[in-house]
């Protein structure tokens, strides 16, 4: 409520009554003159002291005059913010008037004034009593109706403060009726009382009635208050926020139309519309918020006197609104327009220009326009470094942006030093610790993806610790840091540690309630990844099923990650038709977000190619792989491990098509690209060289394949955090090469080691585990004279295969083909089962 209506008006009326005396008949005029002069000069403290002297000199035989002076002292004490003293003087004045039995005509105003002072002092119960007394003393006449309206309103305020909302609303209606009688329905006082009524009925649980009262109050405020009165902005924003909580977009639009209809000043209209839009956006109503931010910008631009700084803000809000509704591609022209505008009013090295530039960088980055993002970050860095004050926070952020751009451009050797430089700039800067946390998060992921696992773990742990320090150990930000740490641990083959870290993050998210469900989904998907990598396929399946029920329709990114993980699982289970469907969903979601030729499309495209290859559809698989390479090339990306992986997939497909020379050429290309990024001794380099050795085996011969395979296996064996299952696969392949060359004892030793390594990470139904058992069994039976041991191994292989076939056939898709198809089409299954049948009937 407005104080000038409730307390200042009464105070002024009281002061006039107390200080004014009848001219010519006042026996104390000369005595009071110095005090009055001090009051009129604004010397409140001196006036108070002089009135105390006056009070002391008035004889007790004149209680009416002493009462008037006491009231004056009460007013002065109140003006000096000494409310308890003011109440003492007012009460003394009331007692003196009771003694004199000659209360003045404005006596009730002093009673109401005592209520005002009590309310300001937080004594609401006493205020209610004073206001009730005042209303009893004020006659209901045309001359007193405004005073009664004001007193009713004051009483409603005090009742509201005591939680008596219903009675407050009733007294407010009394005030509303009185003011309407005095001034008519469109007066400013009527609007102010309606604001109070809205608060009363809302607190009493009548939300719709509160909205109606507040809407009418806004209409009156728009036509009665000054154009620059910010209380109108607050009123409109409060109303919009209430409507947003009810998801009433139509109501928000009506409020905006009301502002358009009654606000004749473009700049003021822009300010109010912007506030309504901001409240709508905060309430999740992004569509209407975007529309209103655009209307606010148009209104501000129509007023040639709108300050440039304000106009820049309106344009920024408009751009962000478009971004939230229509995406970065639609918003980018507006963001660039905003940057150009700010640069004109701020200069190239201004911090506002830097902020606008970063918004443009974000759009480029989200749209996978990484070359443009790099250029943007470099220009911003140059401008910021040119400043004499060296704004470390902004410079550090610009370095981070540049590093991320380089990371996505497959230039990790350039990105790493830039990340390190950003860290150096932000170190020790207390104000930049929030940005430092963001940097550490990104830097840790960069390091672990490029095999610097020890440093990645150190950075990830520091990131989590900093977030706990800044935001608390129960905060969402700390849980995010734990999630990143788990990612680094998982990629460092510290699966059990990663699970423990995820448990900590999940406990925090669980405590945060429903708002943290999306974050919990991320945790579930990463749990599924760990279970999958550890060969626990049933657990992977169950975790993904649980996550499926929690993913919001608005989170296309999580749905995409879920399909990707489910596709990998189904492919491993041999349910290739289902796997292909999941990977196609991933691609469709990528296209919907980024377009048909987006760079990120290459990842699901390669997954589709690999699955098609598994189904034997080699022509389609080749086409998909070449499509991935073409997209890379369209973005100017012809180097890096991702391109190398694509060439490796193409090499495998070409080899299966019998196109040996082309396959070897593609494999050489793949090896060369990966060698540029991954040094000898790293897992990625060792795996690529092993895959190349397999192609040599298929196309050139076993002896040359063995020479290429052994160093790859040795490198992988010594690589930090290497996988036993993958090593087992490589050693088993070496055993096969030795087997084909007649080196049976060496082959048996390799087969046995491969079996031991794979047995620790694969479930009994795994076809790969059955393969290891069957290969070793054949050598033992056919070449080393150990038929009983070989037969036992064949039986173990058979039991595992049958278990897998039953499981897959029982959980296949509706067409019921995947489980059976897997058993029928996989040559290893056929060979192993035939060998079992033959050897089971030996003498």
TrEMBL record:
Xref: InterPro entries: TPR-like_helical_dom_sf, TPR_rpt
SUPFAM superfamilies linked to this entry: TPR-like
Keywords linked to the UniProt accession: Repeat, Signal, TPR repeat
Matching Pfam families: TPR_12, TPR_8
Signal peptide boundaries: 1-20
Domain of life: Bacteria
Stored PANTHER family: NEPHROCYSTIN-3, TETRATRICOPEPTIDE REPEAT PROTEIN (AFU_ORTHOLOGUE AFUA_6G03870)
Name by which UniProt lists this protein: Tetratricopeptide repeat protein
Organism of derivation: Glycocaulis albus
Native organism taxonomy: Bacteria, Pseudomonadati, Pseudomonadota, Alphaproteobacteria, Maricaulales
């Amino acid at each position: 409520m407005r104080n000038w209506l409730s307390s200042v008006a009464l105070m002024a009326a009281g002061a006039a009554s107390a200080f004014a005396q009848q001219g010519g008949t006042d026996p104390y005029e000369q005595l009071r003159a110095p005090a009055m002069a001090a009051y009129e000069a604004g010397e409140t403290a001196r006036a108070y002291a002089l009135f105390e002297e006056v009070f002391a000199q008035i004889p007790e035989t004149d209680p009416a005059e002493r009462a008037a002076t006491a009231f004056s002292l009460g007013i002065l004490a109140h003006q000096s913010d000494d409310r308890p003293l003011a109440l003492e003087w007012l009460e003394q004045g009331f007692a003196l008037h009771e003694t004199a039995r000659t209360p003045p005509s404005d006596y009730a105003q002093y009673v109401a004034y005592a209520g005002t002072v009590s309310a300001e002092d937080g004594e609401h119960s006493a205020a209610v009593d004073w206001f009730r007394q005042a209303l009893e003393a004020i006659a209901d006449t045309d001359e007193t109706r405004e005073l009664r309206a004001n007193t009713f309103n004051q009483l409603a305020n005090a009742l509201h403060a005591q939680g008596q909302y219903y009675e407050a609303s009733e007294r407010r209606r009394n005030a509303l009726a009185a003011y309407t009688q005095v001034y008519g329905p469109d007066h400013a006082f009527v609007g102010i009382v309606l604001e109070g009524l809205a608060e009363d009925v809302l607190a009493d649980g009548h939300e719709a009635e509160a909205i109606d009262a507040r809407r009418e109050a806004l209409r009156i405020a728009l036509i009665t208050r000054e154009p620059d009165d910010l209380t109108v902005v607050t009123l409109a924003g409060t109303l919009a926020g209430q409507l947003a909580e009810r998801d009433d977009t139509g109501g928000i639009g009506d409020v905006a139309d009301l502002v358009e209809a009654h606000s004749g000043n473009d700049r003021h209209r822009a300010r109010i519309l912007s506030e309504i839009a901001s409240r709508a956006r905060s309430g999740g109503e992004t569509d209407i918020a975007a529309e209103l931010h655009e209307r606010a910008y148009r209104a501000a631009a129509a007023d040639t006197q709108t300050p440039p700084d304000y106009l820049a803000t309106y344009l920024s809000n408009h751009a962000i609104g478009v971004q939230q509704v229509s995406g970065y591609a639609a918003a980018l022209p507006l963001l660039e327009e905003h940057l150009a505008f700010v640069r004109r009013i701020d200069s190239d090295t201004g911090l506002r220009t830097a902020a606008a530039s970063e918004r443009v960088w974000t759009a480029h980055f989200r749209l996978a326009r990484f070359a443009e993002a790099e250029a943007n970050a470099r220009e911003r860095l140059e401008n910021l470094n040119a400043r004499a004050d060296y704004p470390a926070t902004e410079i550090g952020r610009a370095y981070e942006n540049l590093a991320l751009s380089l990371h996505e451009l497959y230039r990790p050797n350039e990105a790493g030093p830039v990340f390190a430089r950003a860290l150096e700039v932000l170190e020790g800067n207390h104000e930049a610790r929030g940005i430092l946390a963001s940097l550490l998060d990104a830097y840790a992921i960069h390091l672990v993806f490029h095999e610097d696992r020890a440093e990645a773990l150190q950075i990830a742990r520091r990131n989590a610790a900093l977030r706990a320090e800044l935001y608390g150990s129960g905060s969402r930000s700390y849980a995010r840091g734990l999630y990143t740490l788990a990612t680094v641990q998982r990629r460092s083959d510290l699966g059990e540690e990663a699970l423990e870290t995820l448990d900590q993050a999940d406990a925090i998210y669980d405590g945060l309630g429903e708002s943290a469900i999306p974050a919990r989904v991320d945790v579930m998907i990463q749990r599924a990844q760990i279970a999958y990598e550890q060969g626990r396929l049933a657990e992977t399946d169950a975790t993904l099923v649980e996550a499926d029920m929690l993913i919001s329709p608005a989170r296309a990114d999580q749905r995409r990650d879920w399909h990707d993980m489910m596709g990998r699982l189904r492919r491993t289970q041999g349910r290739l038709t289902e796997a292909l469907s999941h990977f196609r969903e991933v691609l469709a979601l990528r296209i919907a977000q980024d377009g048909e030729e987006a760079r990120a499309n290459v990842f699901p495209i390669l997954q589709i190619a690999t699955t098609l290859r598994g189904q034997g559809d080699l022509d389609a698989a080749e086409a998909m792989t070449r499509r991935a390479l073409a997209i890379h090339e369209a973005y100017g990306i012809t180097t890096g491990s991702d391109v190398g992986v694509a060439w490796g997939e193409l090499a495998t497909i070409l080899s299966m098509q019998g196109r040996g020379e082309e396959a070897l050429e593609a494999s050489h290309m793949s090896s060369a690209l990966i060698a540029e990024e991954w040094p000898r001794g790293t897992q990625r380099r060792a795996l690529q060289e092993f895959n190349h050795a397999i192609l040599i085996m298929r196309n050139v011969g076993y002896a040359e394949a063995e020479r290429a395979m052994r160093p790859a296996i040795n490198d992988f064996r010594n690589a930090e955090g290497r996988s036993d299952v993958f090593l087992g696969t490589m050693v088993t392949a070496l055993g096969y090469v030795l087997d084909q060359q007649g080196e049976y004892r060496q082959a048996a030793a390799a087969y046995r080691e491969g079996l031991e390594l794979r047995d620790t990470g694969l479930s009994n139904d795994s076809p790969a585990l059955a393969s290891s058992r069957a290969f070793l069994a054949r050598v033992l039976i056919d070449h080393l004279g150990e038929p009983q041991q070989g037969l036992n191994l064949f039986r173990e292989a058979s039991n595992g295969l049958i278990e897998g076939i039953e499981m897959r056939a029982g959980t296949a898709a509706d067409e019921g083909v995947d489980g059976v198809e897997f058993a029928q089409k996989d040559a290893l299954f056929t060979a192993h089962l035939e060998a079992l049948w033959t050897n089971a009937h030996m003498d």
